[in-house]
Design a protein that fits this description.
282 residues, 6 strands, 52% helix
Length: 282
């Protein structure tokens, strides 16, 4: 009888939590919801060291935190979420650590295609952004498989930045724009210097960014209290709200996301005016 009471009490508490969550999201929906939130998931290794966990366990706990954050974002109406999963500089870490992360990444990428995955539940289109040629063959193939399998999904978008750096993205955009405009450049080069015009425009670069098709992040949140961008979305975050809660990524919770959105709603009139001024600038 005691076990039955405990089970009933747990179910009741879970119901209350779900009810509170539903009404909290309803209240937030009366204000503007950011269309795009980006996360720098910082602190997985420090979390593992603090709790004396085995190598790689911090990243595993961090993945569970990511799933929780994604559910909250999509339920709130945030359509685009971008996460910094693995930078190009991370390849400089010890080979054992890199291999641990690659193995975990492969496992979690393959899990995205399961019937009960968050991708299936929320109709998420998954994009992997970065220099995917730097990834191991199995990880790259798994990523390409997920991209193809979710290409028709339209309810939400998850951008996973792997083998990524912003400087690499900008160089990639310049190189691709040059290849696209090579014929026009050669034609212009045959003219006199005084009549030459710039062939590559801002729109050309933005079309070849890894993030092409996504709106710029309204919020960029980096956990662990660090205020550095660490070569992440430098081009896209000129007018993003930058937040750095003093919590390690595996410890992030709903309250951190709620406070971030409240901050965004408080400052939304300023960002709206700023974007209008920028759009009128030639």
């Amino acid at each position: 009888m005691e076990a039955g009471f405990v089970e009933t009490l747990c179910k009741f508490c879970a119901y209350l939590c779900q009810l509170f969550r539903r009404y909290l999201f309803l209240l937030l929906s009366f204000g503007p919801i950011p269309p795009h939130i980006a996360f720098i998931m910082d602190g997985n290794r420090r979390f593992a060291r603090y709790w004396n966990l085995k190598p790689g366990k911090g990243h595993q706990v961090g993945f569970l935190a990511l799933i929780s954050v994604l559910k909250s974002c999509y339920e709130l109406g945030v359509k685009y979420v971008t996460v910094y999963a693995f930078s190009i500089d991370n390849f400089k870490r010890s080979p054992d650590e890199v291999q641990l992360v690659m193995d975990l990444m492969l496992e979690k990428i393959e899990a995205l295609l399961k019937e009960n995955s968050i991708v299936k539940l929320y109709g998420i289109k998954v994009a992997f952004l970065g220099n995917l040629d730097l990834l191991s063959g199995p990880v790259r193939e798994a990523a390409e498989k997920v991209i193809a399998a979710t290409a028709a999904n339209t309810k939400a978008v998850l951008c996973i930045c792997v083998a990524y750096s912003s400087t690499d993205e900008i160089v990639h955009a310049v190189q691709e724009s040059f290849k696209e405009k090579l014929g026009e450049i050669q034609e212009k080069s045959s003219l006199k210097f005084g009549s030459q015009e710039c062939v590559i425009a801002l729109a050309d670069l933005e079309r070849h960014m890894y993030t092409a098709g996504c709106p710029d992040p309204a919020i960029l949140l980096r956990t662990s209290g660090e205020t550095r961008l660490s070569n992440f979305l430098l081009w896209q975050t000129s007018f993003s709200l930058l937040l750095a809660p003093d919590v390690l990524w595996p410890e992030i919770s709903l309250r951190h996301l709620v406070w971030a959105i409240l901050d965004y709603q408080r400052l939304h009139p300023y960002f709206t005016r700023k974007s209008k001024i920028i759009s009128r600038t030639p």
